[in-house]
Fold these 2 entries.
Entry 1:
Amino acid sequence: MRQPTVYERTRAAVRQQPAPEEGSSLNCKAYGCPCRGVIDLGGGFHCSWHAYASPDKWPQLTTNLREHEWLLSFVGEMQDHHQRGKTTKELGALAATFWEVDPSMAPTPDEQKHWNWYLWRVREELAYRVGQRKDKPTPRVPQVQDPKVWPQKVPA
Ligand SMILES: [Zn+2]
């Protein structure tokens, strides 16, 4: 089967929605998965997590996703608040309160300016925590401060 392009994977992750009701026809077709199905593999819609995992890993992935429903909900709530026009300052305060026990997950000042960067990092964090990503994601920094892009502009 053709591997999905980065663009397709990105779109799938962006479309990832919080969980529909149990037993809903909108659910991912992987047994017991709490996520919405967004990618059609031929036998029905699957969530982006199951769609790109080999079927032998599905049961463990489902278990991991169920253990992280709190994080799936957080992603959905942050998207909702953002779409309903809360300011990034309000969103930053909500997120900082949510992550009081893990301040490394609160939005950085740059992520508060570019809220989609933060939403992206939280989704990547979810991927990391459910075993779909190898490395823990770090906050994105503006390219002008990124030593990989502009090594000569960053003081040592
Ligand atoms: Zn799923």
Entry 2:
Amino acid sequence: MTVTPEQLRALATRAEALTAEVWTLCGNVQTGPAEPGADASAPAAPDPLVSARQAAGLLARAAEELQLAAADLARLQVRPCGLPWGVCPEHGNTLSSQAGVSTCRVCGRTWDHDRLRRPCHEPATWKVIDRAGTVTRMCDGHVLGARAAAGNATFVRLDQEAGSQP
Ligand SMILES: [Zn+2]
Ligand SMILES: [Zn+2]
């Protein structure tokens, strides 16, 4: 089976909820000033919940680690867009190529190769489903052009595909 970033994020959410539960149960116990009339010189009673509160700290850290693992995994699972021509990652189909150099007409960024005639290597971050049901994965830049061209297509961000909406 394949572990997905969404599964790790779900576990992290449960660890966060557990952390909160432990804190609610054990976190607000006052071990401070003794009750009125108590002997101030008596040694403080050992805190029976100190371990539980430490556990809450560990759970909180575990939640963070799981979120980090989910982010790492999401990064590793990204595939290149692969459409047969290049785009500006920010502006889409705005490149012109001259003498082997590609330039974005909007931001002026240049690439020292003919980006227009090479397959796109930007990370595929979107899934575009056209009216016929054909699915194409593409990068941010290519999605800009697809949005303009395909009014009836469905656009799904890949990192939100299987995630539960909060
Ligand atoms: Zn640009
Ligand atoms: Zn692309």
